[in-house]
Protein 1
Amino acid sequence: MLAEIITIGDEILIGQIVDTNSAWMAEKLNHAGIRIKQISSVSDNREHILTALAEAAGRADIILITGGLGPTKDDITKKTLAEYFGVGMVMNDAALENVSRIFKKYNRPLLEVNRLQAQVPENCEVILNKNGTAPGMWFNHEGKVYVSMPGVPFEMKYMVEEEVIPKLQATFKLPVIIHNTILTAGEGESFLAEKIADIEDSLPAHIKLAYLPKLGQVRLRLSAFGDDAEKLQAEVNIYADKIAERASYAVMAREDIPLEKVLLNTMAERGLTLSAAESCTGGYLSHMLTQHAGSSKVFLGGVVSYANQLKQDILGVNPATISVFGTVSGETVTEMVEGALRRFKSDYAVALTGIAGPDGGTAEKPVGTVWIAAANANKTVIKKFTFGEKRLQNIERSAVGAFFMLITLLRENGN
Amino acid sequence: MLAEIITIGDEILIGQIVDTNSAWMAEKLNHAGIRIKQISSVSDNREHILTALAEAAGRADIILITGGLGPTKDDITKKTLAEYFGVGMVMNDAALENVSRIFKKYNRPLLEVNRLQAQVPENCEVILNKNGTAPGMWFNHEGKVYVSMPGVPFEMKYMVEEEVIPKLQATFKLPVIIHNTILTAGEGESFLAEKIADIEDSLPAHIKLAYLPKLGQVRLRLSAFGDDAEKLQAEVNIYADKIAERASYAVMAREDIPLEKVLLNTMAERGLTLSAAESCTGGYLSHMLTQHAGSSKVFLGGVVSYANQLKQDILGVNPATISVFGTVSGETVTEMVEGALRRFKSDYAVALTGIAGPDGGTAEKPVGTVWIAAANANKTVIKKFTFGEKRLQNIERSAVGAFFMLITLLRENGN
């Protein structure tokens, strides 16, 4: 079963927002056995929307549309859909009740533009929007299903999970797609590819292997297409096992999880705690950890010691160390990590100090120079990295480097 | 001048990665006066790529392609482009030299798959990739320009900024697009729309107004299309001034910057410093600030006090306060913010404590309950928020709420 996603909104085409909806929807649909043929972002323009709808319907059976359902004049999706289907608009009682309920809840007067949000093309089935005022709309038209949803992520997500996917499952007999992902780190894409070339060559036509490199990690993803979930799963597992065995030195996880989740899982299993002393990453590393539910079992917290005064006051870094070796040095990062262990009473600690850029570099320590330390009560490991010139990238790479060092230290001490 | 962006990669269509490249490219091209007609994401599939190229060429003059240039077997963009143009492949000396240089730099042996990365369709002009091994490719074909670039963001970004845009500017006479964005906060989209309805109705046909709502903020974006940059700019400014005056109570910035940057700019102008005590946001608020170059002038750092022990040890929160009122309470957040002011010696401080979810909620304090405090030496303001059930959203909304409270407190004390 093929689907297409059309996201509508000038804000996407001028780059003011990143379309995160499509990836989220694609993942959910894939797990339900629906393949996304194409994702298209088009403008808030009548002709363009009409063309995109017709093109998508020529390629796919399910067309999912987000965006352009707001109360303001630039939002024209709804009336353009009515035009596309050749129908008029009607007021929907359930949708109007929903809009009224929301405005009442926030104690706001119901404006005419808001009341009009409950108007829908007369051939649609309304999907109630529990989290917002714009109703979702389901259309059956010439053998295809069209679903129009708001572009606001948490409104759309609720609809997809609770309403759209169950309804699609009830409507179509869905084929099966099985993915099996292996997370590797510390080894380049082409070296991995060479290592597993013969396994890749032996894959049957209905199983594909993809390499997804990102910041020192490569995810290897096997995808199998067919009808029999159990058989496909067994088949894919055999190849995944072969690959994981061959590349075992680099395998971080046998599931599609980010590196920091590997760290959290490993530490949670062993009942260990972690703290952080972040300078150049400025809270990013802590955020990567704490974005995951349950991280508080492992992560006690830490300090964002952007100013040197905090490195001294909170972590107990010796001012002489900073003045002799500099803030960005192996000596300072060692005192930071050992200070964090002591001060926050955690089993493991991590510390980072570096020059994220764009300013602050010198000939000796250019932008991108980062010292990272990982430690437990028995051992402190430090490492100097030389990343590039881009601030955000240096921050991301530092965090990934730190997670990798922590996992490596944990593995030395485990098993 | 119209362009289209085609991003190639199964990883996008199964939702394993979010396509951030397109928004970035769209923004850069827009500023150069090139409008993006459509963004399409297609799979690593020969027929699909060929169709997408032909469709895009039917709508636009410039076709920008990213992805599918890696050394591994799933990457087929290059040979598919050669097929599309009906040409063979040749080894490019400059590209080969570049690949060799990079492998030498990292002291890695040059594999055959890497050497083959220097092979390109014979009708292309190579765009050197300073940050990676896959060359960029520029094609002139039947009056259209095609540019193929790697999907790795920092490789693509360098090429677009340093090579592609200058070359497009040299090739085409580009029209002008002027944007003027106003950032508002604390007021809903439909209320803003009603407030400025008459101004919106008076806009000439070549100026469009868009509402971009996100997490309690609405950006109002005016876009003008034409030939005379100076005239358009003057015209757009008049309407932007009218709107900003009418909505002045909610206007945070007269430029397209995020809310935390408004805060940083305001504090930097006044020479003020800030520290943070984050519990439920777990480092996210600090990261939002420190992602911006120059943030260290304002932001001293702070503590991620995930564990209660840290709230007591570092911030001096009284254990009795926590046991009587709870970790998530006005009393605790007050002691946190005042502890941060004292401990980190900053002019302003912010503190957050809440239940991000999905666990930890109670009937009295459900998931999404967040207390935020903003303070300076003279005044502490606290506020209780009740957000929703989604962890990441609660984290984001908390940070935005905190920035809004800090800006409000600064405005009371400013001018």
Note: Chain B has three domains: 2-171, 176-253, 259-413.
Protein 2
Amino acid sequence: MAFVNEHFLQLQGSYLFSEVARKVKAFEAAHPQVRLIRLGIGDVTRPLPQACIEAMCRAVRELADARTFHGYGPEQGYDFLIKAILKHDFEERGITLSPSEIFISDGAKSDLGNLTELFRQDNLVAITDPVYPVYVDSNVMCGRAGVAGADGLWSKVTYLPCTGENGFVPELPDHRVDLVYLCYPNNPTGTTLTREQLKKWVDYALDNDALILFDAAYEAFISEPDVPHSIYEIPGAEQVAIEVRSFSKTAGFTGVRCGYTVVPEKVTARTEDGRRVALNPLWNRRQCTKFNGTSYITQRGAEAIYTPEGRRQVEETIAYYKENARIMREGFREAGLTVYGGVNSPYLWLKAPEGMTSWEFFDHLLHEMNVVGTPGSGFGPSGEGYLRLTAFGQREDCLEAMERIRRKGFSSAGKSSL
Amino acid sequence: MAFVNEHFLQLQGSYLFSEVARKVKAFEAAHPQVRLIRLGIGDVTRPLPQACIEAMCRAVRELADARTFHGYGPEQGYDFLIKAILKHDFEERGITLSPSEIFISDGAKSDLGNLTELFRQDNLVAITDPVYPVYVDSNVMCGRAGVAGADGLWSKVTYLPCTGENGFVPELPDHRVDLVYLCYPNNPTGTTLTREQLKKWVDYALDNDALILFDAAYEAFISEPDVPHSIYEIPGAEQVAIEVRSFSKTAGFTGVRCGYTVVPEKVTARTEDGRRVALNPLWNRRQCTKFNGTSYITQRGAEAIYTPEGRRQVEETIAYYKENARIMREGFREAGLTVYGGVNSPYLWLKAPEGMTSWEFFDHLLHEMNVVGTPGSGFGPSGEGYLRLTAFGQREDCLEAMERIRRKGFSSAGKSSL
């Protein structure tokens, strides 16, 4: 008699995006003549860099000839890509890593989900709040999150609030935590930590023998000099941090699927009897057992991101999205709203006008401006009163949305008007 | 203080392939003038079908234009591929499945490894012996296998011996098991179950509320009419079986990465308090949380396998490998050896000449014939006394290897000669 993993049964429904979809669908049915502008999407819209296209076409053609055919590749990824990553993502920032510390994957989501397997069930997890739901759900699935309260909070998870009040800088926990998820530039808030602010977390991990799972998927959007691109810019992080990277938002690889995870040789966790165990060989074993490497075609495409043409083309695309972000930041500010993020990130985090909840503000934007965002409360309790917008849309949509906002303004907004 | 998952520390080293590599390297260093023929490789060598190449080139070019760009796809896979699978892999064999029962992935290894997450740790696992190591290792990692004895056997795993003595047909277990891994056509033995033999297992699962994880990665090699291509050809299997498929050996996708898993809506497992839970939504949730879909390019390539040209080209490649298998079967038989498999499978399972262990036979082939195989004992205790060969090599290598065997014969083989 096969028994199910009952932790799965505790998972909450993925209410947020289905509820957004339901409301949008209902609005469209009632107002078929209105053109909605979707600024809530988390997916890229620009085409791939031409350098990647050409590299992938070449790679496909190689597979058409027995002499240049590639079968199983290394589970850890091809050397050609690992070398390009080491040189451009790390050496150029003064960070020395070895090839065996890089693991190419089919994306950050897979790695962030699968990394939970390396740890015992009773590790205490801390997450920033609001948060990318995968960190929580993947820990619920293995029983590490405890039970969900009526408020949706998990009994064994430590929530680190990030709001306008604390400048979106999470405070160090006042009790033991073992695994800390940090995502900077942050999804959903679009905010960052400075080098000094991130150093506090690395020092905390060093002092408390905690482990940081650092999600740097939005690194390519950083523009300010004081914002670290990698946690390994902070001394000591190579002992306490695993970093997850993605080409999804860097080079438009959301549909092509490629990312990588850095597990430095020095990163350890403890056994129950107090021995230190290096996590690098464990992650290697996990990947060799349950993963067969990333598509050769994809890896050749990712390698092309690091060529001079590839880098120039990626910069152009990122600049396009950042200009979208700037237009939206300015537009909402001119309309009197408080806006966070959007400078080192494709995400903007709007404070709802006085007294409005996230969903009320969502409804207001939908009905009054015909603009679709994502309610911040869907990312966690500290997201209440905020709305997430992204810069991944078309330029003309951003401009049109700002024009609507200029025209209508938020003077009519607020609880009383709804 | 982060604590490690100590089950990982119990994993045995992957001794088999590293030891083969070590011996081959030592031989080559000592005999640099000898050309070794490698018949142990489990990777394909023929190029991809031209239909797949063209489809993937088109898909890559689509990503170069914002109007035809594809970002995140459905985590479950694109409808175009799911429809082709349903029609050609199932409907044509009289099996009706719905699109929501198919989950496209980056390969069978990922799915087989990740499926273990759906079940409680204390399920009892049965595997055929010899076996593909991933089934065992992925259960070791989550603590389901118990502890390894000095003989390498896991205390909580039920081993179902498959040898020449029982015709490689595993006997039903005489005690409770919850999860049964079956792989047919089998890796490593190359043998199959007839419809009648597989029916016994489906009936067992129905009677005992067990679940079958059916690995059909080598289905494309089946030539005999009485061998089922899918477990769902057996009535009732849709209640008790999850089937995993791969395009790796069908169409040479080992480096492109695509497979799929069938989780019928009717397949259930139990909660501790006796409720039945459908596994389809659980696997869906697992994939949506920890996986972001398979590359669009790859899925377009896989779709092309099912076009008339694609099917013809796949048949040609399979025919090439099967002719290799036939040549090797006949060559070894003429040399007086007992050979299993190779008819419905790319694998041949050679019985070592009287009295030789797997490693002794491996050494004999390496030193006398300069042919490299894979020792059967590396796949489990019931593999002792056997050697695995594969048909994935070049035709001229198969012919040359058989010529060497004809020339030298096995008269000098046997324990006394070593």
Note: Chain A is about 35% helix and 15% strand.
Protein 3
Amino acid sequence: MSAARISRLAVIGAGLIGSSIARAAREKGLADTVVVSDADPGVRARVRLLGFADVVAETAAEAARDADLVIACVPVCASGAVAAEVGPELKPGAILSDVGSVKGAVLEAMAPFVPPHAHLIPAHPVAGTEFSGPEAGFAALFENRWCILTPPEGADPEAVERLAALWRGMGANVEAMTARHHDLVLAITSHVPHLIAYNIVGTAAHLEETLTSEVIKFSAGGFRDFTRIAASDPTMWRDVFLTNREAVLEMLGRFTEDLSALQRAIRYGDGEALFAHFTRTRAIRRSIIEMGQETAAPDFGRRPAPGAAE
Amino acid sequence: MSAARISRLAVIGAGLIGSSIARAAREKGLADTVVVSDADPGVRARVRLLGFADVVAETAAEAARDADLVIACVPVCASGAVAAEVGPELKPGAILSDVGSVKGAVLEAMAPFVPPHAHLIPAHPVAGTEFSGPEAGFAALFENRWCILTPPEGADPEAVERLAALWRGMGANVEAMTARHHDLVLAITSHVPHLIAYNIVGTAAHLEETLTSEVIKFSAGGFRDFTRIAASDPTMWRDVFLTNREAVLEMLGRFTEDLSALQRAIRYGDGEALFAHFTRTRAIRRSIIEMGQETAAPDFGRRPAPGAAE
Ligand SMILES: NC(=O)c1ccc[n+]([C@@H]2O[C@H](COP(=O)([O-])OP(=O)(O)OC[C@H]3O[C@@H](n4cnc5c(N)ncnc54)[C@H](OP(=O)(O)O)[C@@H]3O)[C@@H](O)[C@H]2O)c1
Ligand SMILES: NC(=O)c1ccc[n+]([C@@H]2O[C@H](COP(=O)([O-])OP(=O)(O)OC[C@H]3O[C@@H](n4cnc5c(N)ncnc54)[C@H](OP(=O)(O)O)[C@@H]3O)[C@@H](O)[C@H]2O)c1
């Protein structure tokens, strides 16, 4: 299916994801005009300096005016406010989308503000880094990554395809599913992993002071991997846990049940159970590498810190 | 303090760590002769082919004969058997050491076999990758990493210094502490992180089959970091949990208490508590990067999988 070209693309929120979309769209010529807006005047000034937008709009409403596609790239709990602001500006046939890490709550928050002549098609690119802000984005962020669309029931197939074409143009593989299913899958692939990474780094921070400094020193044993995840944006993650509560609590319940079993095996010295568990988990990594979602290089091919001896 | 040169270095167990020591010692000329042995004849054959040993010995006893320094590089629960085999061969003044990830249990298992004319100085290089076997090792593995020595009370300072000099020669920073303290620190920096990584990957593997395949597909959201840790050697990790039970259970207890608090904050929608927790953990990563134990590059500077679009 060929999709109509995007004349005006409006990106609301110029953080890691929004600025990556603007950069990719410009670099690959996916829209005639890329308009960027952000609630923070400081961010708007930096976007002007960085030069990845054709137009920097003062308000989301101004950015959305006459746009074919408006993408809210803001923390999940702010998506309703963006929809309220841009809704009245949406022209007939315009698409309103987002990039939020939770989809059920976003759909619910945005839907009331979308006029019947426009289309609401939420989306979530499964790609990111631990950094945020307009400087952190880059055009290649979505290459070879998945973008999940969660069109509501009865969504216009042409609008869905137009949005999908933009994501494919940025290098992503596109898949569609229900918002509910998205939230369940992401709870285990992303939300619970972030929670337990935040948690173990927090546990380490709560130790006696001398112990904490040793934890930092000897972090190369595995802990430092967790600190990368736990360095992600606090606002973004607060919103994720506030809005995907049900699925997160369900998956967290399974996680702690399984952890109790491992804990019991350790307490009673059950080496066979431990060995069996530690063997089964290897196949999953193999599959992820085979699917091209991960490097096979030892230690992620991680380079040492600048200034480190090599 | 200047340390006597090592004439004959014996490495018992030619896996990731043993083969890295042999390579580094040869490359940097830290011993006149590097002798390597392994219980597995297939591994010995591969060591001959790889050519990083001056001599490949058929048995640990043969390797240890006339050696100044013998390093057991085997899974923690095998260190007692190695000590039993090499003990009778240790010449006066010889040092027996190891690289095990747990130190209290190793000390206990090896000590009975060390004759009074030799020195037992356990050690643990805090460096590794998720791979094992003689092909996985490389000479630079220990550069800018810590090596922790846990000399028993009353250990000979000259023997300690001789071992420390070897580790510094391989690029490591050396620190000494008691075995008990080592096991507590490593429980939180390494053992519990490995356990929870193994656990969440296991939880994902136990989901309904279609859900598991989606977890693999959308793993870039954070989950794939955990799969790297959970791809580590099952024998090594079974031994770690069997031998550092007390410290692991203590730290695991703190971890689950803290997790319950986060879970509660999610259940009752306490955004402020979540935000506060997610903010505190960032400082720890900054310190690790400042100490040169980690790269500051987004996503570890991870390169995409071979064959991935870019
Ligand atoms: N980071 C990731 O790895 C990742 C991956 C996939 C999806 N996502 C999703 O992408 C979205 C954005 O994340 P990000 O990492 O790009 O965040 P970010 O770097 O923190 O950027 C968000 C930007 O949106 C602005 N903003 C907040 N509320 C606004 C509003 N009402 N109107 C206009 N601008 C507003 C923020 O300004 P202030 O600084 O003034 O608040 C900030 O500049 C989130 O929903 C997140 O769930 C993130
Ligand atoms: N991997 C890491 O990241 C890391 C980091 C720091 C410390 N360590 C510690 O280093 C030690 C070795 O780990 P590794 O990763 O190098 O393991 P590895 O790659 O699995 O190698 C261990 C080698 O020792 C051999 N072996 C086992 N029992 C033996 C015995 N009784 N006599 C002689 N050889 C024997 C094994 O042969 P088989 O294959 O026949 O068993 C294998 O070839 C462990 O104690 C571990 O805790 C590991």
Note: Residues 7-177 of chain B form a domain with the Rossmann fold fold (CATH 3.40.50.720).
